[in-house]
Amino acid sequence: PVKRLADYKAPAFLISALDLTFELHDTQTRVTAVSTLTKNGTDPLLRLDGEQLELVSVELDGKAVTPRFEEGQLVIEVAKDSATLKIVTQIDPTANTALEGLYRSGGAFCTQCEAEGFRRITYFLDRPDVLAVYTTKVIADKAQYPQLLSNGNLVESGELEGGRHFATWHDPHPKPCYLFALVAGDFDLLEDSFTTASGRDVLLQIFVDKGRRVQARHAMEALKFSMKWDEDTYGLEYDLDRFMIVAVDFFNMGAMENKGLNIFNAKYVLADDDTATDQDFDNIAAIIAHEYFHNWTGNRVTCRDWFQLSLKEGLTVFRDQQFSSDWAGSSATRIKEAQVIRTLQFAEDAGPMSHPIRPLEVAEMNNFYTVTVYNKGAEVIRMLNGLLGKAGFRAGMDLYFKRHDGQAVTCDDFVDAMADANDVDLSRFKGWYRQSGTPVLTVREIWENGHYGLKLSQLTPPTSDQAEKGPLPLPFAIELLGHGKDVLQLQDAEQTFALGQFDEKPILAPLCGFSAPVKLVFEQSDDELAALMEKASDGFVRVDAAERLLQRLVAAWLQGQEHPALELWLRSLHGIATRPLTDAFLDAELFKVPSVNAMQGWFEQIDLDGLVAARQRLRSQVRERLFAVLHDRYQMVKDVKEKGARALTNSLLTLLAEPLEQGVFDRYQQARNMTERQGALAAAVAGDLANSDALLADFAERFEDNPQVMDKWLMLQGQRSGALKRMGKVMEHSAFNWNNPNRTRALIGTFIATNPECHTEAGYQWLSEVLPKLDAINPQATARMVGPLLQWRRFDQKRRQGLEALLKGLQTPHTSADLGELLGKALKG
Ligand code: ARG
Ligand code: ZN
Predict the structure, then answer these.
(1) Distance in Å, CA 397 to ligand 2 centroid
(2) Rounded Cα gap, residues 465 and 824, in angstroms
């Protein structure tokens, strides 16, 4: 059943307090839920959500009642204005492979309730605008589950008969049920403390699998840095006596911001030099920060309904991006953020799942934890930040918390706080929340009698969900090379900007820092693009200029023609490789040949074979023409013990893998850390070198005991050429596990997202067997990996037919709601 934003109604009842008792047993867990209810209007019918529950009993004010079921909800008539409702349910956490609600993972109990998982624990008003104070008693076997955790502060614990024990937790901050969490297990514990600006001593605890405590140290440093950063940047302090993080290997997403008890996918907690890459370290810091920041943007101020998800996610991603640029930021940080938008988000908007950052209709909420809601949502906040300035944005944040602390609110409330704090009108800006699709920004230069100016126009093409589009206010940041920077505010469909008098026509660096999530159309000369690629002061502009050159070149190649952009691109790379090294991170980006995925974004129709061939040709051109200079640079940086140097070394090694075959092998064997080892291995796989089998086998032997590292191996197995014929074998390896979404995403998800072999008859045949099996185990994990297949209409005719048949074949009576919604959208019309 589809829900619509326009149909929002306030809840008929409020629940001010919820007392929970969990009697944990592996397959038969009993949950007793006592709610303090009050009517929020005149409707006497209380309708509670529930899924996969066995109802044991219901009592209203101490009297047994027999409820009825209507449309999957439990309906209870409540005559008085307030009442106490006691519900007992039984659930099976071991059989729960969907990993929503309460489940057992690697021998521990844990929960995931966002978005609508709490209804798999007990019958409840499972919606974010019902805020209650929780008291949770957890009872379990003491030997097997010595640690019993829930939200808030520990109030009591003790022994019980039969080897069991209990702990009672109280969370004084009213919260929606999606922030509820429970964990029971036997973990190693890393502890530390943090004193807040106003003097509260906070106990910090990170719970990890036995034997891995030292691998939580980096996460702990990131946590303390996050706590300090949020105080310094936004004046936001932590509000409980302890903050706990639990790392589990079975988890559908990255992590979850449950109040006082964050639960993390282990891959975003555990790290040391031998097992994690520099990128892993940065990702961990970003996600630790993200979940911690949710304590204010998400928990203290939460969402009225799930259509408002970007209220907390877009804002919190923006905050974690700001944090990352302060913590470990390099010139590549922003380039990578822009890449996520330009590859994944633009593709989402070009396909059947197109939606505004505040969606209008949703069938399965889990399908809307998207790169649009999260990352485009963050770009929208970034534009506000730029528009209002640092102080203005901070004033808006302060007003937002002053007005809405403890409330469940909307995206409009957030923008209104920004507008009111700065006394500006943001009503047109709100269009970014309503409108889906990617604005195409066309730039035309005006150069007359020494006067230089720009004519900007914008047009958003229709998307699958929305035909009518209008212009949106957007900041266009520019640099005139050698003459300085400026930000032009485009308000309308078309506007002209005079930029002054010059002796010669200046060279324009457009969209500095990726100032707005738009596609650029600008017929700049090849020579100017080459100049930007070498000389612009903005890193994003430099990488983008290279891409725009390559886009022209590849477009010509696809037509069987040659293009002068090739020589210019090679010449610029030569220049970059021979001049003094100033920014290794940036050069690491410039020395990457764009992925086939990135190239798909350059064209409406996907000529997959043509793009694969073009990419190979680009790689071989670089190898043949620039080997000497690239090799010199490789020699210069390969032993430098510094992150930027490692990034650059890995890019160069990937480009030069074929001629450097022995060098790749040596680099792998002599690696001093995982960044070097995985970089060499990835280079061997990308170059399809003869020794890649031996290296992969060595890697599996070295790391077979570390599932997070083995995910890197599974990813490479998904990416490599010849992946399909080896799949059977890889899936039999002990590293693979159908029930673990990290494993299936690494192998199957990577295969779908990156491997051209996916788009063969045999690939589609294989997926038609694998995906239904996976969907029966874990719908959410399955739905998250089919995105690229939904783009079927953009492929050539043969693949279109193959994909259409595949997608249609996946629609059966057994298909999950998650996958079903995506298939329905992809195949309609
Ligand atoms: N709120 C979590 C985060 O971004 C993600 C939870 C995702 N849940 C889901 N059902 N998809 O930090
Ligand atoms: Zn989040």
Answers:
(1) 18
(2) 13
Q: CB atoms < 10 A from the CB of 466, how many? A: 16
pLDDT surpasses 90 at 829: no
Contact 260, 171 (CB under 8 A): yes
State whether the beta carbon of 306 lies less than 6 angstroms from ligand 1.
no
User: Cα(541) to centroid of ligand 2, in Å?
Assistant: 29
Q: Is the CB of 369 under 6 A from ligand 1?
A: yes
Which residue among 119, 256, 310, 371 is best mutated to probe the pocket of ligand 1, counting the most ligand atoms within 8 A of its Cβ? 256
Residue ID of nearest Cα to ligand 1 atom 1: 256
Instruction: Tokens for 104, please give them.
Output: 């057992």
CA 738, 740, 741: angle at the middle one, nearest 5?
A: 105
Taking the CB of residue 390, how many other CB atoms lie within 10 A of it?
10
- For residue 738, give the nearest of 725, 727, 726 by alpha carbon: 727
| Alpha carbons 205 and 265: distance in angstroms, whole number | 16
**Are the CB atoms for 766 and 724 separated by under 8 Å?**
yes
Long-range contacts, stretch 549-558, CB < 8 angstroms, 24+ apart: 550/594, 550/618, 551/599, 551/602, 552/526, 553/614, 553/618, 554/599, 554/602, 554/611, 554/614, 554/618, 555/602, 555/603, 557/610, 557/613, 557/614, 557/617, 558/603, 558/607, 558/610, 558/611, 558/614
Write out pLDDT tens, residues 630-680. Answer: 999 999 999 999 999 999 999 999 999 999 999 999 999 999 999 999 999
Q: Are 142 and 159 in contact (CB under 8 A)?
A: yes
Q: Looking at the CA of 741, which ligand is closest?
A: 1
Nearest bound ligand to the CA of residue 120 = 1
Task: Give the confidence band of 479 by pLDDT, cuts at 50, 70, 90.
Answer: very high
Atom of ligand 1 minimally distant from the CA of 291: 12
User: Is residue 280 in contact with ligand 1, taking CB distance under 6 Å?
Assistant: no
Averaged over 682-708, what is the pLDDT? 97
Tally DSSP H helices, then E strands, for the chain: 27, 31
How far from 107 is each of 26, 132, 186, 270, CA to CA, in Å? 9, 30, 8, 18
49 has pLDDT over 90? yes
What angle (nearest 5°) sits at the alpha carbon of residue 781, between those of residues 780 and 782? 90
Angle at alpha carbon of residue 779, lines to 46 and 122, rounded to 5°: 25
Question: What's the CA-to-centroid distance between 675 and ligand 1, angstroms?
Answer: 28
Closest Cα to residue 358, out of 401, 306, 404? Answer: 306
- What are the angstrom distances between the C-alpha of 380 and each of 368, 420, 697, 819? 17, 18, 45, 28
Catalytic positions are: 291
- What is the enclosing helix (H) or strand (E) of 383? helix 377-404
Q: Exposure string (b/e) for 740-779, b if CB count within 10 Å is 16 or more?
A: bbbbbbbbbbbbbbbbebbbbeebbebbeebbbebbebbb
Ligand 1 mean position to 262 CA, how many Å?
A: 11
Closest CA to 302 of 294, 292, 290: 294
Reference 474, options 416, 412, 387; nearest CA is: 387
Q: Which ligand is nearest the CA of 317, by number?
A: 2
Measured CA to CA, the distance from residue 431 to residue 472 in angstroms comes to 6
Residue 328 has pLDDT above 90, yes or no: no
